[in-house]
Design brief:
It contains four helices and five strands, in the order E-H-H-E-E-E-E-H-H. It is α+β, with helices and mostly antiparallel strands and 153 residues long. It has a five-stranded antiparallel β-sheet, sandwiched between helices.
């Protein structure tokens, strides 16, 4: 399974704000959707977390917007795990426009593994730790993304 998960998004009218480009909150939604998909592909769907009694909670988000996405653009939300310590993990995401591979935004979410009953941070179990490869640099992630995608037209 690739260390970088790529989710394809077609920008719909309901994602466009009053300025004529994708609303900032859409990027957050897409980041969460891509993270959930990536986890499920690594054999960690939400049901498995619930059975364990623990799940990931967001501690912080950082998004740097580089250029606007527009109606009908096809966007690639590319996400990977950038590290993992005993109770937390940074996940990075870059948004690329498929047509020209230009980077639209880059983001990082700091996730904390939390016990659902107590609401307190909990140690990440070994089976979860080993399910995800980590990529420590954006350059390495972009190289993997290039390897997964056909050459641009």
């Amino acid at each position: 399974m690739p260390a970088v998960h790529i989710k394809t998004i077609r920008v719909a009218a309901d994602s466009i704000d009053v300025h004529g480009h994708v609303n900032n909150q859409e990027y957050l939604r897409w980041m969460q959707e891509a993270a959930i998909e990536h986890s499920a592909l690594q054999d960690w769907p939400m049901a498995r977390y619930l059975e364990l009694g623990a799940s990931w909670y967001v501690k912080s988000h950082f998004i740097e917007y580089l250029r606007p996405a527009l109606l009908a653009d096809e966007i690639l939300a590319c996400t990977w795990i950038a590290g993992m310590d005993s109770r937390s993990s940074p996940r990075k995401t870059v948004f690329l426009r498929r047509a020209d591979r230009r980077m639209l935004a880059r983001a990082e979410t700091q996730w904390i593994f939390v016990d659902l009953a107590s609401g307190r941070p909990r140690a990440i179990p070994p089976a979860l730790r080993t399910a995800f490869a980590t990529i420590d640099s954006e350059e390495a992630a972009l190289a993997e993304i290039d390897g997964q995608l056909p050459s641009p037209a």
